[in-house]
């Protein structure tokens, strides 16, 4: 009876969060905004119905299919089952329902979990070699297809929840959902290529249509930035962010550990919440699933000669659901219950269906994640543009007392105050993503890499670096000797960038015919190495990766070709001087192409094309 009353209360009064001093919505009509947090192990949904003249409220979906009996639950498992035809047969909490496992075994269904990590950048430097042990994707399915199936399910979840919990919910959804704004969160390490694939999945799932207007309604936010927005209302101490002191947000989730540092922007008055990123954000593959993977390796070796080796999956699953969560003391043995009282094997410490593990060994499963967080916070301090002393630990993995205590134990002597919010650690990203859209607290971000373009520069015979590369020179259409593959920096690493700051660089394109100038296609590269001012592609070449291509339609130039005509030793040619203008301070990269016609600057928004593999 009590659980029924809780469900009814939740239905009548959905969970809300209101930021202090949040201004009334200034739009002219009602608007729906939905934030989807697709996590490695669990996912959540937050939303807000924006009413003109009223302060926005963030609400969360707290009831999901096959989970109705769990009042107030704000997350569901990120889990799917596909049948042999590639059709989704169970998803979310339904995939954990009684009888599903047996049916899946009997009918040969394919279980899909942790699929989010298959989207990771192929050039990540997380230092976690165990990423190669991720569960595979279903045969014939891409990560975009799996993402889209799960997003489509989440869309149905928020639709059903709103229809059932809001007055006139059916009409409300029918009226507002066709033009809803959608916010997708992703790890700090995801870049344009990953955003492009998430966008494709969102379109396939029906979150937005594949039109210019539809794409404008889709927004991205890093999990680190979303967690800052959440922490501003849940967990930051009153004395933090004062007197120029910053804060580091550590979002320890199922797959990744995202580390971001922020401080109040200069000139911020009173309680205004305007922040700047003060160090390059980090993303590491040391989330909670990797504790389980380390456990699997250890237990597999332990049972290599045991008759219970066939029970490895069951043992690891039990470790993941119980032992890992309650682990608090390395000095005490830990028990993993997986079988019946008849299951005994003293030589491998299995008695009465329980595997006994030394606490010191269990501690080693957590050690890579703990070390990662401690080193990442120290690295943030080394690179930060401002000092900070507070470290806020959020995310589902942060609920581990062992992780929290060990991180605190190692960082406290360094002068850090490590804290974690008291409740709802698993919904920080979903609520924070909504706050990102509504409150827009972060206005300045920090570049993670050095960005630029490879260009050809005039050969200088007195320059030793040019002489060294004489074999890599050529004669241009204008008759000038140039040396190839000089890296022209547009934005250096660890540079603070405001959302409106433009970074421009002058380049030119020379072609034999005007027809070859009518479509400009240039590439933007990222240098990820340690050279402070990289100059040449052949120096530390492996650390240059192509970020994207910038495409601009310039067909109209054919009608004014004489403006670009030049004479060279081999006859006339055409040269277009242009500026590549990039805005790095937004959650997505924006590009503008600029050139002059009759002495007047012309601009065109450029199309950004990402390769699936940024290499």
Automatic annotation (TrEMBL):
Keywords: Signal. The keyword Signal applies. The keyword RNA-binding does not apply. Residues 1-19 form the signal peptide. InterPro entries: ATPase_NBD. It comes from the Eukaryota. PANTHER family: ALPHA KINASE/ELONGATION FACTOR 2 KINASE (PTHR14187), HEAT SHOCK 70 KDA PROTEIN 12A (PTHR14187:SF5). This is Uncharacterized protein. The lineage of its organism: Eukaryota, Fungi, Dikarya, Basidiomycota, Agaricomycotina.
């Amino acid at each position: 009876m009590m659980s029924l009353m809780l469900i009814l209360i939740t239905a009548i009064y959905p969970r809300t969060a209101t930021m202090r001093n949040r201004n009334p919505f200034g739009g002219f009509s009602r608007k729906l905004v939905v934030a989807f947090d697709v996590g490695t192990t669990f996912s959540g949904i937050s939303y807000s119905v924006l009413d003109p003249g009223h302060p926005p409220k963030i609400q969360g979906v707290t009831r999901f299919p096959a989970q109705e009996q769990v009042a107030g639950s704000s997350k569901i498992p990120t889990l799917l089952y596909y049948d042999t035809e590639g059709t989704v047969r169970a998803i979310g909490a339904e995939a954990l329902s009684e009888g599903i496992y047996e049916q899946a075994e009997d009918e040969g269904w394919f279980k899909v979990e942790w699929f989010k990590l298959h989207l990771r950048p192929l050039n990540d430097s997380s230092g976690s070699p165990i990423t190669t042990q991720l569960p595979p994707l279903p045969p014939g399915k891409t990560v975009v297809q799996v993402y889209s199936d799960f997003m489509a399910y989440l869309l149905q979840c928020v639709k059903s929840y709103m229809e059932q919990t809001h007055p006139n919910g059916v009409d409300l959804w029918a009226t507002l959902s066709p033009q809803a704004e959608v916010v997708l969160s992703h790890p700090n390490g995801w870049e344009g290529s990953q955003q492009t694939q998430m966008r494709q999945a969102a379109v396939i799932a029906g979150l937005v249509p594949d039109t210019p207007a539809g794409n404008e309604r889709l927004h991205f936010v890093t999990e680190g930035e979303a967690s800052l927005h959440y922490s501003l209302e849940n967990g930051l101490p009153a004395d933090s962010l004062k007197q120029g002191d910053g804060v580091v947000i550590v979002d320890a989730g199922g797959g990744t550990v995202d580390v971001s540092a922020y401080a109040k922007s200069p000139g911020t008055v009173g309680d205004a919440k305007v922040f700047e990123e003060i160090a390059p954000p980090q993303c590491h593959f040391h989330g909670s699933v990797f504790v389980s993977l380390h456990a699997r390796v250890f237990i597999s070796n332990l049972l290599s000669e045991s008759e219970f080796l066939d029970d490895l999956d069951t043992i690891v699953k039990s470790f993941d659901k119980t032992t890992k969560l309650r682990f608090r003391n390395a000095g005490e043995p830990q028990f993993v219950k997986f079988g019946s009282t008849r299951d005994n094997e003293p030589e491998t410490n299995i008695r009465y269906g329980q595997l006994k593990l030394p606490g010191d060994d269990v501690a080693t499963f957590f050690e890579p994640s703990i070390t990662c967080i401690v080193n990442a916070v120290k690295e943030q301090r080394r690179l930060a543009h401002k000092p900070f002393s507070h470290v806020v630990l959020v995310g589902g993995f942060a609920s581990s007392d062992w992780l929290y205590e060990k991180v605190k134990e190692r960082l406290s002597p360094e002068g850090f105050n490590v804290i974690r919010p008291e409740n709802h650690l698993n919904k920080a990203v979903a609520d924070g993503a909504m706050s990102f859209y509504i409150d827009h607290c972060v206005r300045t971000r920090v570049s993670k890499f050095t960005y630029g373009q490879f260009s050809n520069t005039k050969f200088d015979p007195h320059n030793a670096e040019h002489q060294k590369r004489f074999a890599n020179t050529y004669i241009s259409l204008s008759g000038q000797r140039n040396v190839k593959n000089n890296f022209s920096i547009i934005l250096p690493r660890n540079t603070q960038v405001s959302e409106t700051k433009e970074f421009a660089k002058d380049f030119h394109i020379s072609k034999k015919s005007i027809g070859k100038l009518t479509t400009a296609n240039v590439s933007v590269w990222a240098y990820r190495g340690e050279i402070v001012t990289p100059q040449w592609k052949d120096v530390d070449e492996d650390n240059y990766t192509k970020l994207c291509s910038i495409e601009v339609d310039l067909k109209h130039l054919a009608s004014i070709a004489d403006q670009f005509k030049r004479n060279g030793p081999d006859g006339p040619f055409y040269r277009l001087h242009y500026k590549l203008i990039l805005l790095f301070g937004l959650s997505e990269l924006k590009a503008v192409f600029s050139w002059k016609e009759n002495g007047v600057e012309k601009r065109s928004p450029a199309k950004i094309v990402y390769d699936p593999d940024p290499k």
